[in-house]
Amino acid sequence: xxxxxxxxxxxxxxxxxxxEADTYIIEYKDDATAFNAKKKGTIKGKGVVxxxxxxxxxxLLKEKGIPTHFIGLLSDSQxxxxxxxxxxxxxxxxNVAAGSFSKRLGVEEGxxxxxxVFELYYKNDAYDDPLINDYHATALGFATAAEIESIKKLxxxxxxxxxxxxxxxxxxxxxxxxxxxxxxxxxxxxxxxxPDTCRLWEIGxxxxxxxxxxxxxxxNVEETYQEVLAKIExx
Length: 235
Ligand SMILES: Nc1ncnc2c1ncn2[C@@H]1O[C@H](COP(=O)(O)OP(=O)(O)O)[C@@H](O)[C@H]1O
Ligand SMILES: [Mg+2]
Prior knowledge:
Elements: E1 3-9, E2 13-18, E3 23-28, E4 31-34, E5 39-42, H1 46-63, E6 70-73, E7 78-82, E8 85-86, E9 89-96, H2 99-105, E10 112-122, E11 131-132, H3 134-139, H4 145-168, E12 171-183, E13 186-190, E14 198-202, H5 212-215, H6 221-233
Antiparallel strand pairs: 1-2, 2-3, 3-7, 4-5, 6-7, 8-12, 9-10, 9-12, 10-11, 12-13, 12-14
Helix pairs in contact: 1-6
The structure holds adenosine-5'-diphosphate (ADP) and magnesium ion.
């Protein structure tokens, strides 16, 4: 497979065409942004960590029957994926109150939620990725009701797999953000799952092991990303 022209460059990754119509190459960058790009920086080695971690997790999800875009790793910072039409929504699952949820609803960070919470955001930086519900999504044509049903089902299945996986590797999955895309009439998991897109707290110490270290200037950002990868790479 040959790498072709760059299709788009996002905040964390570049997407390239290939000589195969159904396949893209994603290149993970060290660039870091937070608060919808109001805070910018670099996390050395992040591209490699996020590329490898996404590969491990998407392989795991595939084993559990979740359809994903992941095809295979090409290098430390690049992977081949199925070319999807991204559904313009950020899907968030929360197990424990944190971040914008705590702020918006006045719930102390760390509060365990009675049930996992499913949230949708309209993926649009110009409007700060506003919170929406399934009515907004269908009314505005982001997704059909049937697509939202499968997204919801997949998101909770993914949560079950990931909560257990991170627990086995010494971390609590507080919340995470995922994106879905259309691939030949099927809705599949796309984008990435990494410390940029998950909140992970170390079991025992409650130490934050995710992008909150960058967002909140907690220090040891690079080291912690490496540590997360090392943890999930050990059995
Ligand atoms: N399999 C895929 N096919 C097409 N686009 C994808 C795929 N996986 C992820 N993308 C898109 O690639 C873009 C680049 O990723 P990223 O840098 O994270 O962007 P953003 O700045 O929107 O967060 C995003 O728009 C994301 O939705
Ligand atoms: Mg992104």
